[in-house]
Design brief:
By secondary structure, this protein is of the alpha+beta class. It is 28% helix and 31% strand.
């Protein structure tokens, strides 16, 4: 069933009601943050990690964090929204925070509003049958600074990478940072497997501090899979046995081809099984 409601500042609102003014700072300046959260097998997955990352981002952007903006309250509101939208078992939930007030580049206030939306999904964590075909997006390099690791509403870099993916008829594009290293994909973190060992770019390379990235690294530690955070070059990618991408909604997606290199999906399949076990 399609979504009919959202939650705005704790209140259930019809999607058909006008809600945000043209002066909204998220619309005008991208003065916002967001989280994409997964309902899998009727469980809201890793919500505390999402809220913690969101609050850290709000602190970086000097937004005021209300006392009631906590995991327990947001969880209760998500459950109410899922009930009203009749989303059973699997859904994508988006939680957006934006700065209130008008003003131009300089805000009039640091108080915030938030919006929770949900859309249904057909299934739980499922590994893609066909490996993704990826290549580099190097037209614009991702800057490395204190905004690099947070998910802001200013996503033009990812939009341009998405247009490049579309024009090249790829499944995804890999982004390059200021040093020329590969740091992430359009909406995912990046992992390389070589001789059973995992490699992923450290946050100092400019990648988003992904919630699913954190889960995969924790699972790897529990299962005694050696993991290194290290810069990823084109050479690293071409010499890997596996490449896979991670995000909170899809879990894990394996890459089948990068340039003339083809990959397997053994560990990607293993991690999908682990995620489904957590959602059981």
């Amino acid at each position: 069933m399609e979504s009919r409601y959202c939650i705005y500042n704790g209140h259930l609102v019809s999607l058909f009601e006008p809600l945000l003014p043209f002066s909204n700072r998220a619309f005008r300046y991208g003065d916002s943050l967001f989280e994409s959260i997964r309902l899998a097998n009727n469980k809201v997955m890793f919500l505390r990690d999402h809220i913690n990352r969101l609050k850290l981002g709000m602190t970086v952007l000097r937004m005021n964090v209300p006392a009631e903006f906590n995991t327990e309250n947001i969880y209760a509101q998500i459950i109410e929204l899922l009930k009203q939208n009749v989303h059973a078992r699997n859904a994508r939930i988006r939680l957006t925070v934006f700065r209130n007030g008008e003003g131009y580049y300089t805000p009039e206030t640091n108080d915030i509003s938030y919006l929770i939306e949900s859309v249904p999904l057909n299934e739980g964590y499922t590994l893609n049958h066909k490996g993704l075909w990826v290549d580099l997006f190097a037209d614009i390099r991702k800057p490395v600074n204190k905004l690099s690791g947070i998910k802001t509403g200013n996503a033009l870099l990812y939009t341009m990478a998405g247009l490049s993916k579309q024009s090249m008829k790829l499944d995804d594009c890999l982004l390059v940072n200021e040093s020329g290293n590969i740091c992430e994909a359009i909406s995912s973190n990046l992992f390389i497997v070589k001789n059973g060992t995992l490699y992923t770019p450290p946050l100092s390379e400019g990648c988003v501090a992904g919630v699913m990235r954190k889960q995969i690294m924790q699972i790897a530690h529990q299962k005694k899979i050696l993991t290194f955070e290290s810069p990823i070059s084109n050479y690293t990618l071409l010499n890997g046995d596996e490449v896979f991408l991670t995000n909170s909604v899809n879990g894990v997606r394996w890459v089948g081809q990068y340039k003339d290199k083809f990959y397997t999906n053994k560990l990607a399949s293993f991690f999908i099984d682990c995620l489904n076990a957590l959602a059981a």
